Amino acid sequence: MNGYIETAAPALCRLQLATELRRLRQEAGFNSSQVVRRLRWSPSKLTRLEFGDNSIVEPDDVTALCAIYGTGAETRARLAGFAMVTRTREDAWPFADYQPIMRPRIAALSGQEALAGISRSFEGQWIPGLLQTENYIRSIHEVATERFSPEEIERVISVRLARSHVLHRTDAPLKLFQVLDEPVLRRRVGSAAVTREQLLHIAEMTSLPNVRLQVIPFEAGPHTGMTGAFTVFQFPQSTGMRSIVYKESLIESWVVRRDDEVELYNTAFAELQGIALSPSKSLDMIHRAVKELDEHP
């Protein structure tokens, strides 16, 4: 899967900017023709902005659109910040007077996660973010390569727990198809108590009708997922947004947008589901892992 990929921060910021600009126009009661006439733009320019098809977004263009839509100061700052990231390609807010808790990449990722209708995710190392407990998150960041202060860790916890609301919202909750490799269940993160709490939490989450979790057992042998974790976000048809793939490593993260490349990941995910245990047998494995922790704390 060595196809065309983009660095995640500018790609996600561009996509989230597109999502918000489209929403703001609609909420302000404008159609595309009215906006381009006011700004003397070509129709294709606005279309590219509203679907994230420009590699770089000019902050001045965002400011001009915000002025038409009557956008508040904080929203303008956030959107201009997203636009600047597409230019600098750095995962940092460019304005000294606008420094929210979440970095631009995570803010944009959270936005795309909230917009998505379906998430297909494979993880081979950690419990994935949407299913993590507070103590599990804390334990991960206490040993992270990037050193975090206690205050920064608490902010990360707050942000990550807030992201999980997409699974519980009453209006079209995110449908999560999650495949884990067995080592995720066996790896002790923090104390035995922290790991036990986390395992019981994911067991509880499987009771949600929109969460389907499967585990690939050791005996399945080598598989496609061993090349790395990934998530495919599929958006509702009404958004007009194409599916994307999000991948991350220790120091970098990427987004795949090309349709043929995304389809490779969908195919790989289907293969992983095929060799994984059924949801009920996966739940049994989680409970066995908890029992083993109780027997050998």
Layout: helices, strands, pairs:
Elements: E1 6-7, H1 8-28, H2 32-39, H3 43-50, H4 59-69, H5 73-88, H6 104-115, E2 118-123, H7 134-142, H8 150-163, E3 175-181, H9 182-186, H10 192-205, E4 211-216, E5 230-234, E6 244-248, E7 253-256, H11 259-275, H12 279-295
Structural category: alpha/beta
CATH C-level category of the largest domain? Alpha Beta
Give the CA-CA distance, first to last residue. Answer: 40 Å
Averaging pLDDT over every residue, what do you get?
A: 93
**What is the CA-atom radius of gyration, in angstroms?**
21 Å
Could you please describe the fold and organization of this structure?
- It holds the Pfam family DUF5753.
- InterPro entries: DUF5753, Lambda_DNA-bd_dom_sf.
- This is Transcriptional regulator.
- It comes from Embleya hyalina.
- The longest helix has 21 residues, at 8-28.
- The chain has twelve helices and seven strands.
- It has 297 residues and is of the alpha/beta class.
- Strand 6 (244-248) and strand 7 (253-256) form a beta hairpin.
- The radius of gyration is 21 Å and the shape is globular.
- Helix 1 (8-28) packs across helix 6, helix 4 packs antiparallel against helix 5 and helix 10 packs antiparallel against helix 12.
- The mean pLDDT is 93.
- Strands 1-7-6-5-2-3-4 form a seven-stranded mixed β-sheet, sandwiched between helices.
- 51% of the residues lie in helices and 12% in strands.
- The chain folds into two domains: 1-115, 434 Repressor (Amino-terminal Domain), CATH 1.10.260.40; 116-296, Endonuclease, Chain A (2-Layer Sandwich).
- The chain has helices spanning 8-28, 32-39, 43-50, 59-69, 73-88, 104-115, 134-142, 150-163, 182-186, 192-205, 259-275, 279-295, and strands at residues 6-7, 118-123, 175-181, 211-216, 230-234, 244-248, 253-256.
